[in-house]
Predict the structure.
Amino acid sequence: MNSLFARIMAVMLSVILILTAALSLLSYYSMREQRISARLDYLASEAADIADLAADMNSGGYPALLFQSSPQRYLNWKAQKVNDEFGAYIAVVDRWGRVMDNLQTAYSEDPDFVASLSGEEITAALTRVLAGEQIRIRSQSGQDPTFTVGVPFQQYETVTGAVLIQTKVQRIQSGMEDLLFQVIGVALLAMAVSAVAVWLVVRGMMKPLGSLTEAARAMGEGDFSLRVDESRGDAQLRQLSSTFNGMSERLQKMENSRREFVANVSHELRSPITSIRGFAEGMAEGIIPPEDHPRYLRLVAEESNRLSRLVEELLALSRLERDDATLEKTDFDMNEMLRRAIIRRIEDLDRKNIEVTCSFGTDPCCVRADEGRIEQVVINLLDNAIRFTEEGGNIRLTTEETADGVAVTVWDDGPPIPEEDRARVFERFFTSDRAHTSGKGTGLGLSICQQIMKMHGRTVALLDTEEGTAFRFELDRGEKTEKPAGKGAFPAGKTEEMPKEE
């Protein structure tokens, strides 16, 4: 979990670093361009001031440019100020070709810059300005790139001259270090705040994941009792926690069923084995007199048969639950199968003097299913009814066509299943006085019936009846088949209505 937390933090911080660097770079260049634009605006405003002064000087005619008048002294001061700030070449030219510039001063300060100035570019720029255009030009023709700012001056709404200022791009762009430091400082502060925020968010997200990890580890060790808080985290994490808790509950139930299954199997196997071993040892050691051996041998045979039935039912249930278990569906007469089942259990029915009634809506009643497995369902339900029907009681078998197929019901008038046990009657080895009593069965018959019906896409239902107990299952309707010769000797019995499901 710690390594996962570290990896998430590393990824998040890397993303923050990249985004912050990109935004900082964009911010720096944007602010830099704004500052350059502001300096050019300032340079243009200085050029406009010089143009106004030149216009005032020129208003007195040509001699005004030659004498040290007050406007000219101010113009010289203004030009010197611009030169000191930008190291610029400044030229004031009127329409008659008269020029006043600071060429000597500029050359003395930076001869390379002055030497790199292009006469053609200056002439082209002056032409545009004298035409009344204000210009800002960036030139790459010299050794160093330059900015050129040009402003015309007028008299009586007529352009009479131009002011041209040229300076190195480097002078305009200098002094940006403080801006860079400011951007870096803000970026570092933003990264620090973001890192703390990410740490808090990831730490909050990892807490529920930590709980999930601990619960999963406990589950791997066989403890399914741990649950995680479903109210923490985002929607996806809450859904994951809910799904995990649901899985834990299902696994807990499966584990409880497994333990109960093992305990029940152990108990069911131990009981007949203990009886067989006790009787055998008693006869071998002479504790049981020889004249009683036949009676005890019959008990040993009964316990052996009981043990054999348990093993057979366990194997049958195991085969049904295999992934490769298949069905061999055919069309057959359901009524005929019920008659055969009664004949197979006629001795048990006679022994308890049970009256069997058959109520068939249609005869024959054809269904499509796996005949062998459905016969096992019928036998198990009939055995269950015989087991819990008192002597002289009644059992009723019914078939009726429904909208979905054919419904088969097995009802007996024995004691009803208690309400608290009804939801568990199909569980393996479920112990209930009505559903399973020690010595009366293995508790697997109904589980086998339910598994077979699930393979058919159906279920066995325990019906709500006013008296007795009834189980019902449905099958797909099949094609009509001719009744085999010799079949159908068993009477259909009374045709009564079965108690309906509430």
